[in-house]
Write a structure and sequence with these properties.
With 366 residues, the chain is of the alpha+beta class. It folds into 2 domains: 190 residues, Sandwich (Jelly Rolls); 130 residues, Sandwich (Jelly Rolls), CATH 2.60.120.600. The chain contains 6 helices and 16 strands.
């Protein structure tokens, strides 16, 4: 096997197949169910370029579970599967073959959760969660410091995050109420028993990494475009999403998701009305067709439980229009005519269905 990898590197097949697979990934942007206009198509190809960037980091630069490092797999310019604008995402490669230690300080961020997972987008192997822990259930000292042990073997008397033999990744979600005032937890990860620097690059590692990166770009884009096209069949609705499907796609097990597809013209407004349940957190956000959150750096495209203006009865009305109507809880389409949308809440006591209505802009203030 090692000789075969060496030959594939030497004759260029590994690189050529990687490039061919990226070219084939473009079919998802061109397929019949995708938007047929230059703006959405440009975002689609940019989406593939972003997935390529994070895939190379995931499967080559930071892919060695013997030398794990926390990185940001989704952020302001890499957006995947209705990424939450309130989240600070981190990830690391792990393996059930080893044991790990996470050390850190809690910070002041509203919610901190960590999960271990197996499988990945683009692989033909099963995907799922092997363990989960959140700050509310952890031992944290008076100075906010803590340690977590990651292992297949159960640990007692310490914060334990379970692994399984097939575990391959750690995902950290830090969720803000207010990014401008809260401080993220400072975290680091190490392999227990690690001695010396990581091994040098091998032909096999690069060959396998390029193949996995290409499969990730193809699999991720295909998965979430399939979801988007499914939502598109019932536009301007926001039904509850199957929790089992969300967990299999590496979602947070404590979140109930609602996914839908929105489409409004310049003279229309989209209204989302609901009475939030008792929960630790909720937010609503707008995404493009490719399920990337819209650019929250420059546009108000999401609102959460801390920032929303409520009606006297505690209910919330979110207003989506192309221009600012000067009303509370307004979200900007940021130049988009259509896209997906997501409502989520953490640890809700019940799951009420939101109401979604499209009205004429002229009727908005009536």
């Amino acid at each position: 096997m090692s000789q075969e990898h060496s030959e594939r590197i030497m004759d260029g097949r590994a690189w050529a197949e990687f490039c061919d697979a990226l070219k084939d990934a473009g079919d998802v942007v061109l397929r019949e169910g995708a938007p047929q206009n230059a703006f959405d198509r440009a975002e689609g190809f940019r989406y593939l370029s972003r997935l390529t960037r994070v895939a190379l980091e995931s499967y080559i630069e930071f892919a060695d579970p013997a030398a794990p490092a926390l990185r940001r797999p989704s952020h302001e310019t890499v957006k995947i599967g209705a990424d939450n604008p309130d989240n600070y995402y981190q990830s690391a490669a792990v393996s059930g073959e080893y044991e790990y230690r996470i050390t850190g300080t809690r910070g002041t961020v509203h919610y901190l959760g960590m999960g271990t997972y197996f499988g990945n987008y683009g692989s033909d192997k099963p995907m799922g969660q092997s363990g989960y822990i959140e700050a509310a259930d952890m031992q944290i000292d008076a100075d906010g410091r803590f340690e977590i042990v990651l292992s297949c073997e159960e640990q007692t008397g310490v914060n334990w995050l379970p692994l399984m033999p097939e575990s391959s990744s750690l995902i950290v979600r830090q969720t803000f109420e207010d990014r401008s005032t809260e401080k993220v937890a400072e975290l680091s990860i190490e392999r227990i028993g690690s001695v010396g620097p990581p091994d040098p690059l091998t032909p096999a590692f690069l060959d396998q990494g390029l193949a996995a990166a290409a499969a990730y770009v193809q699999g991720t884009s295909r998965l979430f475009c399939d979801w988007s096209e499914g939502f598109q069949k019932k536009p301007n609705q926001l039904p509850a999403f199957d929790p089992a499907v969300a967990r299999a796609a590496h979602g947070d097990p404590h979140i109930q998701y609602y996914h839908g597809y929105w489409e409004i013209s310049a003279d229309e407004a989209l209204l989302i009305d609901f009475l939030p349940p008792d929960c630790e957190y909720w937010n609503f956000q707008l995404n493009n067709h490719w399920m990337e959150s819209l650019d929250y750096r420059f546009h108000p495209i999401d609102v959460n439980h801390a920032g929303a203006v409520r009606n006297p009865d505690g209910s919330v009305r979110i207003i989506v229009t192309h221009e600012n109507p000067g009303l509370p809880n307004w979200l900007d389409t940021a130049g988009h005519q259509r896209g997906t949308m997501c409502l989520r809440w953490i640890r809700a006591e019940h799951h009420p269905d939101p109401s979604v209505t499209v009205i004429k802009l002229s009727d908005l203030n009536r």
